[in-house]
Input
Amino acid sequence: MLYDKFQRKHDYLRVSLTDSCNFRCLYCMPNEDITFMPQRHLMQREEIFEIAKTFSSLGVTKIRLTGGEPLVRKDAQNIIKDLSGLPVELTLTTNGFLVHQFIQTFKDSGIKSLNVSLDTMCPKKFHELTKRNSFNQVWENILLLIKHKFSVKLNVVVMKGVNQDEVVNFVQLTQKLPLHVRFIEFMPFDKNQWNSLKVVPFDVMLQQISSQFDVVKLKDKKHDTAKKFKVIGFEGTFAFITTMSQPFCSDCNRMRLTADGKMKNCLFGKDELDLLTTLRSSAPIEPIIRKALFLKHQALGGQMQGDFTKLNPELIDNRSMIKIGG
Ligand code: SAM
Ligand code: SF4
Output
């Protein structure tokens, strides 16, 4: 079992398969020419399996594949199939664009639930946010997943002046569709033009929704990062990920592996321990994993405290989201 020094048990690993992506979301990528990691710096298929197997032997029961966009990796299907052989709940987070090519792989690999990111139902705004004209394909793929009985969580990053006006529309979607919409508070990463005025806190969104619908609170599971709700009589649910206004670190069970094989003990942490180089030198990685966990801070990587409206993003030392793996 893996515990940090605050006695938090860690049994959930998020693995980034790549730092590259077919979209260019403005809140995720630095606003500059981006260079992706050379192939040889990335964990190779066998290395991903080896590292994941070690985590599983240490008590990890859930693995989420992410990125960048995990499905752009040429060997994504093989990686997914390899990992499905481990005794873990396997899942992934995707922008949805390539999902139609993977339906059978997901089924064969026992994947039951996926997170798909979609921040707007307006094709023009979709282009402004992602620099791609792909709204229709993403939406069709979300419907395809539902048709094939996958549980779909829809990740919506809410930003003031950008898509706050769509919060109610997203909840309306849950009337007929068994979708689980999750509104994510906009978070600061390297050069992503974050400022606190762009964050829409969850209580503001909840008020917007409650003024239109009869809302009930649902019970949250242990380790849930989302506060779940439902409109009475609707098929789906909605939830808030309140990283900025009400962080949920006290119960954290997550670890992250970047595409270049560095272990991060927190999304906002600057500590990174190199599992891949250790593995390539044929040394055991377990001591490095335990050391990385020992370094974990009590909250928000030790870099943010208190009121997010007073936060200076210039003082946060971290990679961009695309290079961490969300
Ligand atoms: N490409 C995949 C996708 O878009 O779902 C997986 C990687 S992406 C980095 C993972 C999640 O992080 C997405 O749901 C995305 O919306 C979210 N994300 C990225 N940057 C964010 C930010 N600055 N604040 C909040 N969420 C963010
Ligand atoms: Fe790509 Fe996902 Fe980041 Fe958008 S949020 S740029 S789809 S990795």
Remarks:
- The domain at 12-324 is CATH 3.20.20.70 (TIM Barrel).
- The mean pLDDT is 92.
- The pocket of S-adenosylmethionine (ligand 1) is lined by residues 21, 27-28, 66-67, 69, 93-95, 117, 155, 157, 184, 186-187, 189, 192, 321-322, 326 (CB under 6 Å).
- The chain has one domain: 12-324.
